[in-house]
Specification:
Radius of gyration: 24 Å
Helix content: 40-55%
Largest sheet: 8 strands, mixed
Distance between the termini: 63 Å
Oligomer: single chain
CATH topology of the largest domain: Rossmann fold
Shape: globular
Number of domains: 3
Strand content: 5-15%
Strand order of the largest sheet: 3-2-1-4-5-6-7-8
Structural class: alpha/beta
CATH class of the largest domain: Alpha Beta
């Protein structure tokens, strides 16, 4: 099939490249010419393991093309995916559909034959109805909702082996077309789930809100474990063994972040508020997640006795999760400026490089490796669970007698650190003196 992906952000680029990899002809469109030039040269503008190789391979095979001409991409394709950003409106929890509506209007203006328009961007319930109005004079156009469920760092695998493929349409004829599009994945066992368009739009929001709820729940239980001398990992394993609950997303740690959960939980509440439905659980999740950032900083104050001035604090990893360069709503964006204001000296290392978010902070320094970043540290904060941080010898690394390790990901344990005489704090586990 001939496909056009409008937007080469995370969703559009990964999905477009993977569609090409299963045999479709794909034109990826973006108005950022620098990004397009980079992609034509075979280099991905985002960090995703394996993506550069797939881009080069499918470009060489003449299945994957990049262009800044929306008209070219649209008129060479039969199915048009809208994969543009849907950020929160400033000073609001509601979703900004500016880019989605602009893309739809451009498609309507430039398309010379009938098309299937698919929203892959995360959009509020009723967005498909708005698009219907844009295409009202083009009666043969069909508007479909096909939300994505790609995890950053695992996106290629998630595309190839999805739990389910959700297609929402008010036209029954379009389901067969979408099923044929995804047939290579369905033949490998992916579930093809049909619903109406509004149903598909809500499934995405509800899924992310539920996963965010699981994370927030286990983090609150971790707080209780710390006060009662219980190991949170025992609780997670015991709960997760129940098939009705499941073990995924029951790992205690910092507040959730990234491009989806913070935005989508607030977006869902905004949708509900408009129809006067009180999503009290989701609202509590949002509030609890914010409070968790404050709680982590209180622990740092406790470690130093409230005075962090001139203390050298090292962050190992600053992205919201490993295997991505995504900084959106990462806890480090809250913690580092807070500590900086209190005159701490901040060093950080992340495998994806220096971050523009911290460049203007005085006494905040990026290092290109763990050893240099940790030199003479008073406190090391394990912020992101990159693989290279999972087997560090901190005593050998620092060559310093007194320092503290604050493990936000529970990569190590108290027994290990006690043997090495390292002062150690973790999440939701009893402290061994």
């Amino acid at each position: 099939m001939k496909i056009c992906m409008i937007g080469t952000g995370y969703v559009g680029l990964v999905s477009g490249t993977c569609f090409a990899d299963i045999g479709h002809t794909v034109h990826c469109v973006d108005n950022n010419k620098f990004k397009i030039e980079k992609l034509i040269s075979g280099e991905s503008p985002i960090y995703e393991p394996g993506l550069d190789e797939l881009i080069r391979e499918n470009s060489r095979a003449r299945r994957l093309f990049f262009t800044s001409s929306l008209s070219e991409g649209v008129n060479k394709s039969d199915i048009i995916f809208i994969c543009v950003g849907t950020p929160r409106k400033s000073n609001s929890s509601s979703v900004d559909l500016t880019f989605v509506l602009k893309a739809a209007k451009q498609i309507a203006k430039t398309a010379k034959s009938k098309k299937i328009i698919v929203t892959k961007s995360t959009v509020p319930v009723g967005t498909g109805d708005l698009l219907d109005k844009i295409f009202k004079n083009k009666k043969k156009f069909t508007i479909i909702s096909n939300p994505e469920f790609l995890r950053e760092g695992e996106a290629i695998r998630d595309f190839r082996f999805p739990d389910r493929i959700i297609v929402g349409s008010n036209s029954t004829n379009s389901f067969n077309i979408m099923k044929n599009l995804y047939l290579p994945l369905i033949n490998k066992g992916a579930k093809f789930f049909k619903t109406n368009r509004r149903g598909a739009e809500l499934i995405k929001y509800a899924s992310n809100a539920f996963l965010a709820t699981k994370i927030t729940f286990i983090n609150e239980i971790a707080n209780l474990c710390e006060k009662t001398g219980i190991n949170i990992e025992d609780i997670s394993l015991g709960m997760g063994s129940d098939a009705r609950i499941g073990s995924r997303f029951l790992r205690a740690g910092p507040a959730y972040g990234g491009s989806c959960f913070p935005k989508d939980t607030k977006g869902l509440v905004s949708i509900a508020d408009k129809v006067k439905i009180n999503l009290s659980i989701v609202k509590s999740v949002i509030k609890s997640n914010y409070n968790r950032k404050i709680l982590l900083l209180k622990r740092i104050n406790k470690i130093f006795g409230k005075n962090v001035k001139n203390k050298k604090i090292v962050f190992l990893g600053v992205t919201f999760k490993p295997n991505t360069d995504d900084m959106r709503d990462a806890v480090s964006l809250y913690m580092i400026p807070y500590l900086h204001k209190r005159k701490a000296i901040i060093n950080y290392y992340d495998p994806t490089g220096e971050k523009k978010e911290f460049k203007n902070l005085k006494n905040c320094y990026f290092y290109s490796n763990t050893k240099d970043a940790c030199k003479n540290a008073d406190l090391i904060i394990l912020h992101t669970e990159w693989d290279e941080f999972k087997s560090l010898d901190f005593k050998k690394l620092l060559k310093k007698k007194k320092f503290t390790l604050y493990d936000l990901r529970n990569l190590y344990n108290h027994e290990q650190m006690k043997k090495k005489k390292v002062r150690y704090f973790s999440i939701g586990r009893p402290i061994i003196n």
